[in-house]
Write a structure and sequence with these properties.
CATH architecture of chain A: 4-Layer Sandwich
Organism (chains A, B): Massilia horti
Pfam families (chains A, B): GATase_4
Largest sheet of chain A: 7 strands, antiparallel
Number of helices of chain A: 4
InterPro entries (chains A, B): EgtC-like (IPR026869), GATase_2_dom (IPR017932), Ntn_hydrolases_N (IPR029055)
CATH topology of chain A: Glutamine Phosphoribosylpyrophosphate, subunit 1, domain 1
Structural class of chain A: alpha+beta
Number of strands of chain A: 15
Oligomer: homodimer
GO molecular function (chains A, B): transferase activity
Strand order of the largest sheet of chain A: 3-2-4-1-12-9-13
Keywords (chains A, B): Glutamine amidotransferase, Transferase
CATH superfamily of chain A: Aminohydrolase, N-terminal nucleophile (Ntn) domain
Chain lengths: ~260, ~260
């Protein structure tokens, strides 16, 4: 099993604090040492970092812990290989282009015998169940909506149908973003917190580090952090329900 | 006009030396400060770094100058914006997936009124002539060969036809790689050198730095470096002919 971290904000925010705790799970406080990756949207563009070294030892993870890249949508992943060998092409998140936007995807879980018919424009480069699931999602969205991106309510309905179809093959906790919204689906384990005014001082579970967000934010900032297991010890994290797909925009979940 | 740097090798090699000189052109020894990017193939996987800061000031460029990522195919680009604003989504190289491989593309030049009919699976995310040209190439390759990658001779014939079609709109110096070969097309300016046994000591044009390659290589290593303008002062660089497409595999050009 891998671990997922997502961030969705109303103003570009850096993920240095949350990533610092999360990266320690990549080989130091946990056993997820078969690679890691992170993707940051900046406008329509994406910065995509992947490494097949564990995140706790990676020079690129070290850079990210100290270089405050500001983004409104971030997805990160640390990997414990269950399918596919340890190789760069198997590190999440994966990126594809659809409807003139980049889409970023990461998965935690294990899909048994999931070999969908990929007859369209999206083919896996590596050999994981996760990348097959992502290609299937992209292919089916394009098949349903053609060359034009749908509006959010229509997209949400189809995504719910597709993720449930995939989740029937096993565990499918996943995060997906096109840079405007962050979609998160829980099969077994996912939780989130919304940080907003008055901002608390948060203490990392995985390292002896705390940050007073009120010093680095304005009263209008709002940040949702979504993760496999709570990152902090003194915030109230809300568990997803199994089978639930949540859509985050501007730092909060959008009511269905 | 931008500058291009490519490397194609028979064994995974780091690009630290060549990139160090090249990165100085991104704002220090030259005026290319509107972003930069580099993509390294590792097996089928790609590490892709882009930054809209000039390469000479970028913390990520600094990392790459000191972190010897070993690769058999690398494409780098420093940007002087001619079309499209300075934004992350307009930084080269661009990456798309076709036939279950990542394809990396970078362009130097300016295409006038190039708005091809993009009716397939590849759409630009930014607003440059370069990304439109890349999407057109990917679309046409998929249209000609369907879902199966062709062999190299067939691919070369079609690529020559397509790049000449694009080059009729302006200047189209470009590099393209799927991780197995590096394709380089010259409209106006491109040169290359093949480094092999006995390796020389090379001196960078853009910085007071030299390296004795014989200390860091074995007699079997072979490296082709392709670039807009020669990077070293004491090696013999071969100019491309205008209109020429060269294919590099295992560190040398493949005869047509």
């Amino acid at each position: 099993m891998c671990q997922l971290l997502g961030m969705n904000c109303n103003v570009p925010t850096d993920i240095v604090f949350s990533f610092t705790g999360f990266a320690h799970r990549g080989g130091r406080t946990d056993t997820h040492h078969d690679g890691w990756g992170i993707a940051f949207f900046e406008g329509r563009g994406v910065r995509h970092f992947v490494d097949h070294q564990g995140a706790s030892a990676s020079p690129i993870a070290e850079l990210i812990k100290h270089y405050p890249i500001k983004s409104t949508n971030v997805i990160a992943h640390i990997r414990k290989a269950t399918q596919g060998q340890v190789a760069l092409e198997n590190c999440h998140p994966f990126v594809r282009e659809l409807w003139g936007r980049y889409w970023v995807f990461a998965h935690n879980g294990d899909l048994k015998d999931f070999f969908p018919d990929l007859n369209g424009a999206f083919h896996p480069v590596g050999n994981t169940d996760s990348e097959r699931a992502f290609c299937f999602l992209m292919q089916e969205l394009r098949a349903r909506f053609g060359d034009q991106a749908p509006d959010l309510p229509a997209l949400r309905v189809v995504l719910i149908e597709l993720v449930h179809q995939i989740a029937s093959y096993g565990t499918f906790n996943m995060m997906l973003s096109d840079g405007t919204a962050l979609f998160a689906h829980c099969s077994t384990k996912l939780c989130y917190v919304v940080r907003q005014y008055p901002f608390p001082t948060a203490c990392l579970s995985d390292e002896d580090l705390s940050v007073d967000f009120s010093e680095v934010t304005t009263p209008n900032d709002r940040v949702a952090v979504i993760v496999t297991e709570p990152l902090t010890t003194n915030e109230r994290w809300t568990d997803f329900q199994p089978g639930e797909l949540k859509v985050f925009i501007d730092g909060m979940p959008v009511p269905a």
